[in-house]
Amino acid sequence: MVTLEEIVSLCKRRGFVYPTSDIYGGLMSSYDYGPMGAELLRNLRTIWWKAFIHDRSDMVGLDSQILLHPQTWVASGHVGSFNDPLVEDSKTNKRYRADHVIEAWLTMHPDPTVVVEDMTIDQMGEYIAAHKIISPEGNALSKPKTFNLLFETKLGVVEGEKSTLYLRGETAQGIFTNFRNIVDSNRVQLPFGVGQIGKSFRNEITTGQFIFRTIELEQAEIEYFFDPEISDWQELFTAWKNAMWTFVTDSLGVSASHLRWRRHTDKERSHYSKDTYDLDYQFPFGWKELWGIAYRTDYDLTQQAKHSGADLSYVNPVTGKKIIPHVIEPAAGINRLFLMVLTEAYTQEEKRIVLKLNSKLSPYKVAVFPLVANKPELTQKARGIYTELKKSLSVAWDDRGNIGKRYLAQDEIGTPWCVTVDYATLEDDAVTVRDRDTTKQERIPISGLIAYFQQKLL
Ligand code: ATP
Fold it and tell me: Which residue puts its alpha carbon closest to atom 25 of ligand 1?
């Protein structure tokens, strides 16, 4: 299997991903997407949007803001419940909840006088130090710190009068706060869903897994609203799980053997959730969450209604019954999809590295070359084909170096087809089309090229 180092190296070498602020030595857990990466991200978003919004009749899209009214995050529980007392292993930098570390220690050293829930963060620190409690890996622990995953920022121009806002920690809350607007301004009826793709921010401490866990991330989230008395939640939940799985295998071309479902345990699950699963992918560093699905009941709409005073109910147009809809949430990370498709596509062959990306994902669909450089008649002919194909496809041009090197460069960025104009082209108006995966070459008339590629891309 490909290593993370090999992927990181390809990403930098071929313009998929660079460390953010590279010239300043980088910024913790932050990455920029280069010319190839930007195209791949766009393709992932487009394919997701098509599958989950355009191809369905029960879904609409949304584009809400990164900065929302701060009460949104109080209502959702993010402001209150992200205040974990965190300690770090001094050697591995793995982080743990201080209260959990103490509870684990107390199971082996019972002391009924200690009530962990009642301890302040300082008391936890003192207790850990006094009893020399160590991390599960056997190393010393840092002093506990209060840690909230939400990023704070300020709104306003007058010092001292600025108000605190949060960069959203998930895109989902923008869907809940717009529920009334969406129902009132669109002809939607339960069950229906709202999908959104956008940036979220989390002050994550864990580092070192490339774009898997970053502080700025892109999410593709769906809130699927329904009346639990009319729709069976388990049926909907299974249907959404199937849709997620099929998307990854069929639309993104990932092998089912690299995927698995993991059900959250009762303790792990949020208190308001009735069921939660993670769709895990076998990343180079192990099985990790790619996409989560949770049945969040009516928790979020109820909370947002309570804190805003707005009526977030839905009136059944047939029965007139008023309810707060329940919701199923499939939430994916676009950056994790990105890392997954690169991991899946990376193929080391004897003489080349090939990214066997699904052609719909490839940054360029076609590359056009003149067989040799500095031959004006070949360059002119090839340039004409390039310009024509570019009207309907994303096309690369390369006339540097020898043809073998150009093929290798296109293989590494996953371009499925290379078109070469040679001397015979000047006679027969046909070109050589080379297939990325098989390296087989075919002679195709120029007049039939667009149809040829469009057929392949269907
Ligand atoms: P994890 O357990 O890995 O921290 P999570 O359960 O907190 O993830 P959710 O809140 O369910 O994640 O977010 C939905 C999706 O957003 C995840 O399945 C993941 O793909 C993506 N995601 C979450 N946090 C990050 C991050 N820091 N960097 C990149 N993607 C992320």
Answer: 213
pLDDT digits (tens, 9 = 90+) for 333-369: 999 999 999 999 999 999 999 999 999 999 999 999 9
Ligand 1 centroid, distance to 333 Cα (angstroms): 6
Does residue 433's CB lie within 6 angstroms of at least one atom of ligand 1? Answer: no
Q: Extract the tokens encoding 217.
A: 């991330």
21: left (phi over 0), alpha (psi -120 to 50) or beta: left
CA distance 374 to 295: 62
Of residues 119, 78, 75, the one with CA closest to residue 100: 119
Determine the residue of 151, 217, 276, 291 to mutate for testing ligand 1's pocket, defined as the one with the most ligand atoms within 8 A of the Cβ atom.
217
Note the pTM of the prediction, 2 decimals.
Answer: 0.90
CA of 219 to the centre of ligand 1 (A): 8
Q: Confidence class of residue 233 from pLDDT cuts 50, 70 and 90?
A: very high
293 lines ligand 1 (CB under 6 A): no
Q: What DSSP string runs through 322-349?
A: EE--EEEEEEEEHHHHHHHHHHHHEEE-
Q: Take residue 126 and report the two structure tokens written for it.
A: 């003192």
Residue closest by Cα to atom 28 of ligand 1:
213
CB 16 within 8 A of CB 41: no
Q: What's the pLDDT tens digit per position in 49-80?
A: 999 999 999 999 999 999 999 999 999 999 98
